[in-house]
Amino acid sequence: MRPVRLVLREIGLRLREPFRTSTGAWDQRRILLVEVGDEDGATGWGECVAEESPLYGPETVDTAWLAITAWIAPLVLSREFTGPEEVGPALEAAFRGHHMAKAAVEMACWDLAAEQEGIPLAELLEGTRAEVATGISLGLQSSPAQLAEKATEAAAAGYRRIKLKIAPGADVEFAAAVQGALGEEVPVSVDGNGAYSLGDLEVLRRLDAMQLAMIEQPLAAGDLVRHAELQRRLSTPLCLDESITGADRAEDMITLGSGRIINVKPGRVGGHGAARAVHDVAAGAGVPVWCGGMLESGVGRAHNVALASLPNFRLPGDLSPSARYWERDIVHPEWTMSAGMVTVPRDRPGLGVEIDEEMVEELTVRRVVLTGRTLTL
Ligand code: OSB
Ligand code: MG
């Protein structure tokens, strides 16, 4: 595989409703789209999940733009790869960090390979599922009653798991209101996005008593040892998200006992290759994983759904349909959910959805076309 052209675009997409977590709020998404092309005109698409500000992790839209144009694209456009599985390791060997920027390009290469081979991305990734169970991630709300109403709507829509964003001061009461409204109907989980510390043990113990499906990332990303300490004190499974930056951290989590479930986001770990490695490490240890989301457009969603078709994605993923986020998505058909399941596209090559290039063009605020050619004076 030899990518010879990379188009990097930034688009703006307004969310239908603002999304609030313990770290900040989003009312629109600035999204980087990567399109890689080969000599024969085949193309592959990827989406960068970095956010406008460094709230979830240290990367941002602008650091990703820099990393892709300055380092990642020049490397990928300068060599031939036997297959897309070589792209991630080459980028990891060459540059530290910048996983979200690397992932956008690496995943575009996987799509390109699927297009070249004429097979669905899910098949190229060796996914086995025909459909994937879907959960919803509900942002922080102004009151417990408001959150309970949102959760009731989500349960009626068929979601198989309801995750609540929590923050110190907006946790136990909020989760209790949801459980009061839903009963045992749907599993409920909470996600702290690293806002708690071991000093909050009292609150975490109260959450532990609520029969939640899991408590996601209560402590900071680097706190594997403290998560292990916390997991020893709680019976609810901890699920790590921000902490798991690759297969090595997944091994550490398992060795230390820092958690019992992993939220796999390909953007966070550097792409499909690394995400599959996390999946395999977890599978080997009997640890279930599920596919997280970063408020992606239909392009990122396509990659996540294909990845989530792998066998150890045993729990519902944050794979809400297009209409939950956007007035109109940039892909056809839009992503939908039926009885809480999303169908893995297996009837056409690549992503399984068509990119609305006209709409992308209209939404584009900046674009750069990169080739392997270097400027010689
Ligand atoms: O922690 O999983 C998270 C969104 C932005 C940043 C971090 C997270 C999230 C979500 C949204 O939970 C899930 C989705 O895409 O629906
Ligand atoms: Mg999370």
Compile the SSE list and pairings.
Layout: E1 5-20, E2 25-37, E3 43-48, H1 61-76, H2 87-94, H3 99-117, H4 121-124, E4 131-138, H5 144-157, E5 161-165, H6 172-182, E6 188-191, H7 201-208, E7 215-216, H8 224-233, E8 238-240, H9 247-256, E9 261-264, H10 266-269, H11 272-284, E10 289-291, H12 298-307, E11 317-318, H13 322-325, E12 331-332, E13 341-343, E14 354-355, H14 357-363, E15 364-371
Parallel strand pairs: 4-5, 4-11, 5-6, 6-7, 7-8, 8-9, 9-10
Antiparallel strand pairs: 1-2, 1-15, 2-3, 4-13, 12-14
The structure holds 2-succinylbenzoate and magnesium ion (MG).
Magnesium ion binds at residues 191, 193, 216-217, 241, 263, 292.
Report on the structure:
With 377 residues, the protein is an alpha/beta fold. 37% of the residues lie in helices and 21% in strands. It is built from 14 helices and 15 strands. Strands 4, 5, 6, 7, 8, 9, 10, 11 and 13 form a nine-stranded mixed beta sheet that branches. Helix 1 crosses helix 3 and helix 2 runs antiparallel to helix 3. It is globular, with a radius of gyration of 20 Å. 51% of the residues are buried. The model has no long low-confidence stretch (mean pLDDT 97).
